[in-house]
Design brief:
Shape: flat
Distance between the termini: 30 Å
Structural class: alpha/beta
Radius of gyration: 16 Å
Strand order of the largest sheet: 2-1-3
Number of domains: 1
Number of strands: 3
Order of helices and strands: EHHEHEH
Strand content: 5-15%
Helix content: 40-55%
Number of helices: 4
């Protein structure tokens, strides 16, 4: 199933159009997710989307000092963590499809 994913804890796609002026934010339909866990759940359920709009700051704690980001200290995961997870997920899909693996176990 083809879909577009909009990851942001507060904004809507029309808000992104307001500051980017990119028509894609108002001309396309989007499924909106607000956090890391919803991001993973949706992709595991529906597959990798055609388009992903990533917000970095997905919680109030991310709006602090941006000059020295310590990702491992955050309680709430960021858009960066979502991108990392997506890369790993796609690598696993490539391996499974290339080698026609029916079951893959990891620890």
């Amino acid at each position: 199933m083809s879909y577009n994913l909009f990851l942001d804890d507060i904004r809507m796609p029309k808000d992104a159009f307001g500051y980017t002026k990119l028509p894609i934010f108002i001309s396309e339909k989007w499924i909106i997710v607000r956090n890391y866990f919803a991001f993973i759940s949706l992709i595991e359920k529906k597959g990798v989307p055609n388009i992903i709009a990533f917000d970095h700051d997905l919680g109030a704690e991310h709006y602090t000092d941006q000059s020295n980001i310590k990702y491992d200290e955050f309680i709430e995961k960021t858009g960066y963590h979502c991108a990392q997870w997506l890369i790993d997920y796609c690598i696993v899909l490539i391996i499974i499809n290339h080698f026609q693996i029916k079951y893959l176990f990891t620890q």
